[in-house]
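Summary for the steering committee. One of the milestones for this cycle was to obtain a three-dimensional model of the protein with adenosine monophosphate bound, which we needed before selecting residues for the alanine scan. The sequence and ligand used are listed below.
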Amino acid sequence: MKIIESASQASAYVAERKANGQKIGLVPTLGGLHKGHQSLMYKALEENDVLIISIFLNPMQFRKKQFLEYPSDFEQDKRLAEETQVDMIFHPSVEEIFPDVKKIDDFFQYQEEKSAVRNNQHFVIEAKNKNGIDDLIRVPSCLIYRLDGTMHPWVFDGSATIVHKLFRILQPNNAYFGEKDIQQLAILTNMADNYFPELKVIGVPTLRDADNLAFSSRNVLLSAEQRQAALSVYHVLKQGENLIKQGESNAKTILTVMTETIKTQPMIKIDYIDIVDKKSLESIKQISNDIIFYVAFFIDDIRLTDTLIVQLNQK
Ligand code: AMP
């Protein structure tokens, strides 16, 4: 397994493999690898000749405290990657990816900007942001002001910006993302259609642990008691699904029942909860097509999310 930190060397690695007729699969990650990431890697292994993962903790996507405290251990990530037969880890520094950003705090300044130029339908590329971020991708309003993107659009501009750079450097044939981050998946699928028409973005279902908690890098931060509380949120999503299966179609009624159940769990503070249309990600009032339950919540200051897709034709 190769570990490459330089963007130009990574591009050369890919060019050589492609010249041999090999197909490249990419799994972008923030590090802190777990079995959920591994399920993306297994899918990529099946469908490609070369498996590349990127490990890059992108400061554009985090508040400073969360960035500094993100639970990742590169030695452990290397072991998991090796065991999963990864061919190459692209592991660039922040300076390699953002050479013109002077200090780490500039990324947190960018998050405070109120004057982002955003188009309703189209992606916009800012050549150089005032904080030194080059080729900053502004996600269209129709994709970003959905779900909890409304509360922190900079998270998705950040993830589109880094993934756009990764796609340019690594030129994969296929790239794999989790349905767990459903809005990110929708945005990146759209971004790839626009800028990388040869590249296929593939969504992978959420992998859960034996107790049904979705794997997440942040799960290592949970005590046994906090983990139980986190699980109760999953049970509430299942409660919502059951209501739909029993014939309830009013989203507000379902959300009210779910919110009441969550209130009985004092450790949980809901940041965002909604039922959205699977295609448009828009909030819905009446359920008639496939839908997604999406929830973001805090247990103390640990923020977790969960997603449950309900296919109505499989009722
Ligand atoms: P992250 O490092 O958290 O950005 O995750 C990297 C990729 O793995 C993203 O596309 C996530 O959606 C995906 N992912 C994270 N957790 C899971 C999970 N439990 N099951 C499947 N995919 C996941």
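Key point for the committee: Residues 219 and 227 are 8 Å apart (CA to CA).
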